[in-house]
Structure formats: structure tokens, C-alpha cells
Write a structure and sequence with these properties.
7 helices, Rossmann fold, globular, 235 residues, alpha/beta, 11% strand
């Protein structure tokens, strides 16, 4: 299915805010928004994450997609800790196989991260007159984070339309698009390749080495490998 069919009630050139982490999911979301003919405004976050190298990849993606604007917002979730991504005292779990990933919410979960990110993206959307926000959350091949599930996205969209001037007075319902939420990694990659995404510009690692070299054994690396392996691709 062509991506633009999902957005038939939008006019070509309308602004859209895309949360861009520098990973393969957000890059695919960016391609979907571009295919829909929307004007692209990307937002990334420096939030105290150990894998801050992802911001360099986000900037490269924004340039490659020739977005209208790209912002990096500084917030400090590391002051709260509680996650191996923001607390250097905690180790990022490593495994030898994706089969070793358990059903429990892992220590790489960052408390309230997507709620904070979407709230700031919502503020940007109001300012630029956008009614479309894109986020690359996924509820199949993912690490079990509670803020990556369909009920969360639906609830946030309802809240956004209750809490904003655009939602209350604008007569233009704000929409949170999560077009990858019911796809596995192999399906996401297939969609991205069909839309011309250069995945060599992306990084998915939670604990990269110097220069952004992926560790190859964290949850994100293993799920990425699984997705590409389904297409016979070894990174």
C-alpha cells in the first residue's frame, strides 16, 4: 500500500512534525511523511542519552531528506536516571541472540521519554500550524516499552486535542501518526527501501563505541540485525 493513501485528507505541502532519532524506524517515518507530500519539520532530542551519536545521524538524515527545518532540543532526563540509557551507573544489557530477549520491560526503558518528546513536538506543531505528528514507535519487534503501544498513542492524541488551542478552537484535529506500530522490523525495512531510505545513514545501537560503531549485542542492534537478515542483508 502506498504511504500517501493513509493521509488522503491532507493537502500537499501541509507542515508535519517528525520525531527523528537517527534510527531506522524514525528514518522510515520521515520517508512516509515525504511520500505523503507533507512539508517536513524534524525534531530530535539531546536528553542525556549515552548513545548521543544518534544525533549526528539524525542531522545527516535531515540533510538527505532536505527538510524544511531541523531542531535539536536539549532536555536532561539523566537527572532522573532510572534507565541504562541515561544513567552511566547502569549497564546496557547485551545478548548473543534475539531469542534471549525476555518479555519484561528492560532497563533501557526511559521513564516518560515518549510523553516528553511528543509534548515538545506538539508545541512545535502548534507554532508552525501543523496538525500531523509522526513517531516511529513499534509494538512488534521492540523492547516492550509501554509508550510504544497503540493505546498510548491513541490516548496521547486525545489529550493533544483537549490540551491545545489548535485542538480546542482550531477546528483541525491533531493527529499522532505511528505508521510502523503494527509492523515488524523486516516489514519496516521493506517499506523504507521501497521509499528510498538509505539505512546506512541510520544507527540503532544503545551503546555504540567511539565513532558510532554499533555494539552488535544490545536489544536494538539484535532487532535491527533480525530485520535485515529477513531480506538477506548482513550489515
Amino acid at each position: 500500500m502506498k504511504a500517501q493513501r493513509q493521509f488522503g485528507d491532507r493537502n500537499v505541502g501541509e507542515p508535519a512534525v517528525v520525531l527523528l532519532s537517527g534510527g531506522l524506524d524514525s528514518a522510515t517515518c520521515l520517508a512516509i511523511a515525504r511520500e505523503a507530500g507533507l512539508e517536513l519539520h524534524t525534531i530530535s532530542f539531546r536528553y542525556g542519552q549515552r548513545h548521543e551519536y544518534e544525533l549526528e545521524r539524525a542531522a545527516r538524515l535531515a540533510s538527505a531528506f532536505q527538510v524544511r527545518s531541523h531542531r535539536v532540543v536539549d532536555i536532561d532526563l539523566a537527572q532522573f536516571g532510572g534507565s541504562a540509557l541515561t544513567d552511566r551507573a547502569l549497564e546496557v544489557p547485551k545478548h548473543d541472540s534475539v531469542d534471549q530477549l525476555g518479555p519484561e520491560i528492560p532497563i533501557t526503558y526511559v521513564p516518560a521519554r515518549n510523553t516528553v518528546f511528543l509534548s515538545l513536538a506538539l508545541a512545535l506543531a502548534e507554532v508552525i500550524g501543523s496538525r500531523d505528528l509522526f513517531i516511529g514507535v513499534n509494538a512488534l519487534d521492540y523492547s516492550g516499552y509501554p509508550d510504544c503501544r497503540p493505546p498510548y498513542i491513541s490516548a496521547f492524541e486525545d489529550m493533544a486535542n483537549l490540551a491545545t488551542r489548535a485542538g480546542v478552537q482550531g477546528g483541525r484535529r491533531l493527529r499522532i501518526h505511528a505508521p510502523l506500530i503494527e509492523l515488524n522490523k523486516a516489514e519496516i525495512i521493506a517499506m523504507g527501501m521501497s521509499l528510498g531510505v538509505d539505512y546506512s545513514l541510520t544507527i540503532s545501537c544503545y551503546d555504540p563505541q567511539a565513532g558510532g560503531i554499533p555494539c552488535g549485542r544490545c536489544d536494538a542492534c539484535l532487532l535491527r540485525k533480525k530485520g535485515f537478515a529477513a531480506h538477506g542483508i548482513v550489515e
